[in-house]
Amino acid sequence: MQLRATFRTCRVVVVCSTLFKNGPQTCKWLYQGKRKYSFMPDDVKSLRTVVNPDISKIRNIGIMAHIDAGKTTTTERMLYYSGYTRALGDVDDGDTVTDFMVQERERGITIQSAAVTFDWKRYRINLIDTPGHVDFTLEVERALRVLDGAVAVFDASAGVEAQTLTVWRQADKHQVPCICFLNKMDKPAASLSFSIESIKKKLKANPVLLQIPIGIGKSFAGLVDLITNQRMTWQGKTREEDGRVFETKPLSQSDDPELLQEAKEARVALIEQVADLDDEFAELLLGDYSENFDAVPPLKLQQAVRRLTLARKGVPVLCGSSLRNKGVQPLLDAITAYLPAPNERHHDLARWYKDDLCALAFKVLHDKQRGPLVFLRIYSGTLKPQSAVHNINRNSTERMSRLLLPFADQHVEIPSLTAGNIALTVGLKQTVTGDTIVSSKASAVAAARRAQNEGEGERRRGKGGGEQSSLVLAGVEVPDPVFFCSIEPPTMSKQTDLENALTCLQREDPSLKVRLDPDSGQTILCGMGELHIEILHDRIRREYGIETHLGPLQVAYRETILQSVFTTDTLDRTVGERRHMVTVGLDVSPVPDPSDATSCDITWEEEVKGHLSADLREAVENGVQSAYLQGPLLGYPVQGVSTAIKSVTMEPGTSLAMVSACVSRCMLKALKKARGQVLEPVMSLEVTVGEEYLSPVLGDLAQRRGGIRDIQSRHDDKVLLASVPLAEMMGYSTVLRTLTSGNATFSLQLDSYQAMNPQEQSSLVNRMAGLS
Ligand code: GDP
Ligand code: MG
Prior knowledge:
The protein has 22 helices and 39 strands. An eight-stranded antiparallel beta sheet has the order 20-19-25-16-17-24-21-22. The protein has a seven-stranded mixed beta sheet with strand order 6-7-5-8-9-15-10, with helices on both faces. By secondary structure, the chain is an alpha+beta fold. A hairpin with a 3-residue loop joins strand 16 (358-367) and strand 17. Helix content is 31%, strand content 30%.
């Protein structure tokens, strides 16, 4: 047997290319540091189940949570109990499988959504670890597209926190069925009722409580499963006891009358709630079990809970403590029992491909040895190594060399993979995150024909997307970056290396934008937050070996106008033999709500529009759009302006480019006259802080032009909701840590763009002009 090991940033990636000839049992263990990895769980029975499990047994699941809720710890426990890791990883020691980038280990946060595959009781679970930091919501959004279900992990002492709310909304948008896991039941401040209330109030969800905890805080010992009426207890009091063994017995044998009573009431409440939400169950209950609700078979109850979870009428709620190794196995059972298989989800596009391949590239990673690794979610058809695939977005055909399954942190080579699975491919060099992959151009055309026959094609083409785009799996909306800074290589000779590194990083992360400043010639990085840019800087150093210098972090402002102005302009220029002459008249006016980023528009005087050819109209609109890109005050993009084209006259022979140029110049003139206003990004901020530190935090926020919206209580903590201009938030995490001796957490998210006050604006304009 041949083993090839490649070293990547502090971990081992093993490819066992002849694994399937010899069978998994011949594979040896590999060591790295204090952990041991096995190739496969010991109970793998046959090759077929390993490679392509039945689609009904696949669960593509995301874990979402606020930072520190315990997502990474929970994932680690899942891998451990399913037999994929031989030692318990610990975020506090920095040796977990899923937080695999060095920075993540050092900072103890999860940035990249790494896909991990493992099996649990004959089910194949593909887990996407989604990031908890607001700078990386794009990663969450992307992950949610390829998932069929999600687990929301909460800190049971904190309930729903800001980031979970954001991700939950995204899950709503994509109609992803969810279950909730109330983690950290071992904390003294943990509270079941508080957490349930906050799920109701903040998430506007309908919690369906399937378990009640036995003991809470230090005495938390296990759970009562309300479906089966069984109690599960874990003996381990310390972290060292791994929780693999636990006791399950019928509740009726419990000698604790209080627990019996509590469980009885909770079960009745559950049965009534489920009957309310599910008609089929209600009928069954009123028919066969009207005399004794309690006698309803657990399986029937479970099936009803599954139906209402899939229909998103309710969310099952479970509890546990990942750190103390309690409640994770029932959570795994719940994932297989309640969350949907890929074929139970409706993926609009895939049906047009029938049995042909259709897959979405949802993640690109760069590996030094193997080049780009592309994670694909397969919606239909079969993926095979050593084959050509067609990328619809790039309109290019490229060759995939190898196909891997991302088992824990080993990548296992496989001969084929079918619909519903998550694959890792080697060799796709042009594919970017968000691209749609099919087997060939001909197959895309055939799918287009099917789509058209169903009338869908017509409707979509009507939207101006064209035939191609109707076949592309919906990409991910990339939000506009709010921060930017210049980046310089140590010497000019490193410039090309830096450009290469940035190209690779952009393929991985579409929220990173790179542009060249036309005036200074500098390379500019644009990102989603301070941490985002810091991490990129770090990665360029570690992964590409380039020590770069970052310029000061700057805020991406916008510009708008305060007045309506009418202007005309004439361009008269002779180039060679040809005379170009055009005159335009246009009106710019502010829209009522300039904070809406999509609020720039163009309207036409009907008469003018009627006289112009489609080409000319496009040339005029291009002129307006290019003026919107750079405002007259500071050169930031313009928003909140409506432009009306009043007149366009020209000599025959005037080129389209000259028309655009004239319109642009006229726009600039108009925008200058219309009293420019700078808009600044205003963030919504949530700070959770111990009561005794509230006043210094409030005092500090006042100095940052912060507006307090609300102060709520959560146990002994205060939760402060505020809006603060982004420009005032640089380095906030350090300041907050100092002010509160580390007793506060915060999250920050773009709220809107708002007008700066005149003094702030003039000092900003002076600063940018180098006057102060
Ligand atoms: P993530 O940011 O959501 O990935 O959370 P982590 O898994 O990194 O955990 C954050 C912190 O909470 C770490 O210090 C963990 O040790 C701790 N933690 C995780 N689960 C539990 C739990 O069940 N109980 C307690 N008390 N602490 C936990
Ligand atoms: Mg984590």
